[in-house]
Specification:
9 strands; single chain; alpha/beta
């Protein structure tokens, strides 16, 4: 069995002024062929998981096309995305493969194209109309209906912090191999909940709503799967800083039986809606925090007993992410309270 592997992994913040360039990919992950094997072997990445999976099976040849990853930043230079898409979609090395595995993030944005991952998969589907294609995604993906429709199998990280990248790849490849070997017909269903879940309270290494959602998704798929049937549900939270239409939390279900898959997708989406308010932290107001004068004893400052306020979001974005009803940026609320009170000699 020959499986083509490609990777486009980048999380874009629409509000960042730091455009992602080719150089940022080249200093992190920019490889193909044998160079990709050398880079990823033994790592806990998706590509590393794919290599471990193939070696364990012993009957699989992985064909590495372009693999590209850059650190999260602003939207990607469109010429770079066009090059990546072209190099993967037109790669002659992929001719004759039995299936494709794509390592995607799901929240990549171009300076022109707001959904380059759908563009990539669409190009691959045009070239390989009948070839099984599986993909794995980050938990903070923004997935369009058109993207799900063009896939035969999909997985998402189940952990936050993300420590199961390799496992997400292996699960996708297991389904892909079952489709190829058993000549089985699957589809990927998408359900969204019209909510972007904040990363607050999202950790899965402790008790919390995302851990409960993941547990329910796994249990429900296990209950509903028929004998020898492919059925898997992967919730995702989406990404609040990707200002795109497809930003929306939801669940991806890979299924053979469309009715079972639809019922599972609806169930997990409903469970996510029931738990969505648990992601919202109970934050104190600026007035309540400052009334306690937490800086007064000097223990929170190396230089003085005067308060120090950091507003990193204000310096990292083109515009305030949110404004108060009076039109003032919410990020400066604490400073405004201090200036109003005159406490501690605070100044801008």
């Amino acid at each position: 069995m020959r499986i083509g592997v490609a990777r486009l992994w980048h999380e874009a913040n629409s509000f960042s002024v730091c455009e992602t360039t080719l150089e940022q990919f080249q200093v992190r992950e920019w490889c193909r062929g044998d160079a990709a094997v050398d880079l990823y072997r033994g790592t806990a990445t998706e590509a590393g998981g794919a290599l471990a999976w193939a070696e364990r099976r012993g009957d699989v040849e992985l064909v590495f096309s372009r693999c590209a990853s850059a650190a999260p930043a602003g939207p990607v230079d469109q010429t770079v995305l066009d090059r990546i898409t072209r190099e993967i979609a037109e790669d002659p090395a992929l001719e004759g493969v039995d299936g494709l595995y794509l390592s995607l993030h799901g929240a990549c944005i171009g300076t022109v194209d707001p959904d380059p991952e759908t563009t990539l998969v669409t190009a691959l589907r045009a070239r390989f109309p009948d070839l099984p294609i599986a993909a794995s995604f980050d938990m903070h993906a923004c997935i369009a209906e058109a993207l799900a429709d063009r896939l035969d199998a999909a997985t998402v990280y189940r952990t936050y912090p993300h420590v199961d990248m390799a496992e997400a790849a292996i699960a996708a490849l297991d389904m892909l191999a079952a489709i190829i070997e058993g000549k089985r017909k699957t589809r990927v269903l998408l359900r969204v909940i019209d909510k972007i879940l904040p990363s607050f309270n999202m950790r899965t290494d402790c008790l919390g709503p995302m851990r409960d959602i993941e547990t329910e998704a796994v249990a429900a798929a296990s209950r509903d799967a028929g004998e020898a049937s492919i059925l898997a549900a992967y919730p995702y939270a989406s990404f609040a800083y990707a200002d795109v239409l497809q930003a929306n939390a939801g669940v991806l279900v890979t299924c053979e039986d469309a009715a079972r898959g639809a019922a599972l997708a609806d169930h997990v989406a409903d469970y996510m809606r029931l738990n969505q308010t648990r992601f919202q932290p109970d934050l104190a107001t600026a007035d309540a925090v400052l009334a306690g004068r937490p800086w007064a004893d000097g223990s929170r400052s190396r230089s003085s007993s005067r308060p120090t306020i950091r507003c990193p979001a204000a310096s990292a974005t083109r515009r305030p992410v949110r404004r108060r009803p009076d039109g003032r940026p919410a990020g400066w609320q604490c400073l405004r309270v201090l200036l109003r009170s005159g406490d501690g000699g605070a100044g801008p």
